[in-house]
Amino acid sequence: MQIPLVSFVSLALLTGSASSKTVFSGLSVNGVDQGHAVGVRVPSSNNAITDVNSNDIICNTNFIQPVSDTVIKVPAGSQVTAQFHHTSAGYTGLADPSEPLDPTNKGPVTAYLAAVPDATQPTVTGLKWFKVWQDGYNSETHQWASDRLFLNKGNATFTIPSCIASGQYLLRAEAIGLQNAYTYPGAQFYMSCAQIEVTGGGSATPQTVSFPGAYATNSASIITNIYGITDYTPPG
């Protein structure tokens, strides 16, 4: 069941001062939940990253310790679900109107992969990333990816391409809040990285980008007034 847009607008007016914070803290593979913080580098804070030129834009920072040393097996072509929750604790079962994110949050959700020799390696600078999925704005329904994330209880589901090479990767899943993105800095970036190993893959060599570098401070995808918007392309 979909919640009408008017419900989101009314709720936004009622909770305009609420936090839009969210955390990617768990992964499911073909519907099988791998567990909270298992194979995911979960930041200890749900504060946004706002500097696109900071290394923190890669996988976030100040992770819950110890960081998981699990590498999640993902057959190429599988569906994975990035699980977002309001806090780093994941789903607590407590009543929280901002679980998995506050409905005033408006923006895209994206996912990237970077091939690495060892998915548990602490170093994430200098990696080459390619986008495997994005969900932006639907001009017909006037819903954002964040609205769909809210309706889906924080679950963002997408396919790991069957054509990419087998091996270990970092999976970077990110929700972006644009409700205050009138100027820079204003956009809010919420990302974490999961440690995965793709099996049964192909030999594709996708085009890549770097973080920092993929997002420009003057990009129309990052500096934007979302109210009255008719079209939007996610950054990266």
TrEMBL record:
Protein name (record): AA9 family lytic polysaccharide monooxygenase
An annotated GO cellular component: extracellular region
Keyword Cell cycle on entry: no
Organism name: Pleurotus ostreatus
GO biological process: cellulose catabolic process
Keywords from the UniProt entry: Carbohydrate metabolism, Cellulose degradation, Disulfide bond, Polysaccharide degradation, Secreted, Signal
Signal sequence interval, chain numbering: 1-20
Primary localization class, coarse: secreted
Domain notes: Has a modular structure: an endo-beta-1,4-glucanase catalytic module at the N-terminus, a linker rich in serines and threonines, and a C-terminal carbohydrate-binding module (CBM).
UniProt-annotated location(s): Secreted
Family matches, as Gene3D superfamilies: 2.70.50.70
GO function terms (MF aspect): cellulase activity; cellulose binding
Pfam family name, one: AA9
Listed transmembrane segments: none
Family, similarity comment: Belongs to the polysaccharide monooxygenase AA9 family.
All residue ranges annotated as the Auxiliary Activity family 9 catalytic domain in the record: 22-228
Catalysed reactions listed for this entry: [(1->4)-beta-D-glucosyl]n+m + reduced acceptor + O2 = 4-dehydro-beta-D-glucosyl-[(1->4)-beta-D-glucosyl]n-1 + [(1->4)-beta-D-glucosyl]m + acceptor + H2O
Its EC number(s): 1.14.99.56
Enzyme class, first EC level, given as a word: oxidoreductase
Protein task: Lytic polysaccharide monooxygenase (LMPO) that depolymerizes crystalline and amorphous polysaccharides via the oxidation of scissile alpha- or beta-(1-4)-glycosidic bonds, yielding C1 and/or C4 oxidation products. Catalysis by LPMOs requires the reduction of the active-site copper from Cu(II) to Cu(I) by a reducing agent and H(2)O(2) or O(2) as a cosubstrate.
